[in-house]
Amino acid sequence: MKTQLYRAVLFLILFLHIIKPSEVFPTDHLTASGCSVSNTGYLTELASEYEKRTGMRIYVRGGGSLVGIEDLRSGRVDFAAACRGRSADDPEDIQFIQVAWDALVFIVHKSNPAENISIKSVRDIYSGKITDWKKLKGSNSPIKIFLARHKKGLSGVEASIKDMVFNGDNPAETPNTVSVASTGIVEQMVEDTPGGFAASGFTSARKRTVKMLKVDGVYPTTATIINNRYPLKRPLYLLVPKQSKPGVRRFVDFVLSREGQRFIGSLGVVSLSDIR
Predict the structure, then answer these.
(1) Model pTM?
(2) Per residue in 217-234, pLDDT tens?
(3) The CATH number of the domain where 171 resides is what?
C-alpha cells in the first residue's frame, strides 16, 4: 500500500514538473458576462470566431445586463455585454460601446394563434387590464407574463420596456406576473408555457422556439429594423473598463472593424454598418 502511495506521489511530482500550468489551465484568455440577448444572439459565436483568428480564448456567460455590470464592478470579468444604456447607478469608469442593433419584441408560445399586438395592448397586458388571450385573437386562456428582474433592478429588456413602452414608468406586477432571473430564462419559460407572454430582444428571440408578434402590424425582421418600419429599435453594447487589458481593446477593435461587423451581420444581427 505504501509503495502504491509513493508511486502516485512521485507521478504527481513528475507531472507538475513536465507539464506547464499554461498547458493545463489557459492563461491567455478573456472572460465576459451580461446581457442574455447578446450572449445567445451573437457574442458566443463572435468569441469563437475571434479565437479561430487570433488564438485568444474568450469565456462568455449570460446572466443579464445587471449581472455583467456587477461582475465588472467586482473585477470578476474582463468585459460585459448590455442591452441598455448607461444609468446613473453605473460605475463611471465603465465605457458603453455600441457594437450592434437590436429591437424589443414580444413573444408568445408557438401554439398561440395571436399574430399582432398594439403598443396599447402591451401596456394593458402589463397593467393587468387584459388578462386573457381571447381579447387579442388568441386562445381562450389566461395570459401568463414573464419578467426578468434582477434583485438590484430591471434587466436590460425590462429597462427597454420602461423607456420605450411606458415612457419611463416601471411595468406593473400583476397576479399573472412571474419574475425570473434573466431574459434567457424568460425565453425558455415562454417556449414551455402555452399562455406565456414576454418581451425579449430580436437578436436572441429569433433563435428560440417561440412566436414573435407583429407590433402595430409590422413583423420584426432585420429588414424592418434597418428601414425603421419596426418601431422598437434599440442598441447593443459591450461594456469595457477604462483601464482594461490590452486583449480587451484588441477584441473590441475587431468587433468594430469591417470584418467584425461583417461577421455580426452574417449571424442575422443588425450591424452598425447596416444603419448609417
Answers:
(1) 0.87
(2) 999 999 999 999 999 999
(3) 3.40.190.10
